[in-house]
Amino acid sequence: MDTPPIEEQQMFQSVTCKIAASEPEITEPNMLSLDLINYVEAEVSRLESFKSSKMKELVFKKRSELEDICWKTHILPEYDTSLEVAIEAIESGIF
């Protein structure tokens, strides 16, 4: 998967370094503000959606490569439900 640019990662550096912090260790103002929490939740949701789309793209690409190999070697590709199962698992968040 693609790694987000450094600038994008740095925006969340203050949040990620406080994940395991205890309450007395959080001393920065607005560190737990509702706006920041909502912003981080939206970013996590966006990244989960991005991850899901990239995983589906990879599954389809690998399936296509397998079909090409089968056709080149004169083997009929087997069509089973594994592709659908993989897509359902990705969409449900299991992966």
From TrEMBL:
Broad class of where this protein is predominantly found: cytoplasm
Residues of the signal peptide: none
Localization in the cell: Cytoplasm, Cytoskeleton
UniProt superkingdom: Eukaryota
Pfam families membership: MAP65_ASE1 (PF03999)
GO molecular function terms listed in the Swiss-Prot or TrEMBL record: microtubule binding
Single GO BP term: microtubule cytoskeleton organization
Keyword tags: Cytoplasm, Cytoskeleton, Microtubule
Keyword Endoplasmic reticulum recorded: no
The UniProt record lists the keyword Cytoplasm: yes
Cellular-component GO terms for this entry: cytoplasm; microtubule; spindle
Family affiliation: Belongs to the MAP65/ASE1 family.
Protein name as catalogued: Uncharacterized protein
UniProt source species: Mikania micrantha (bitter vine)
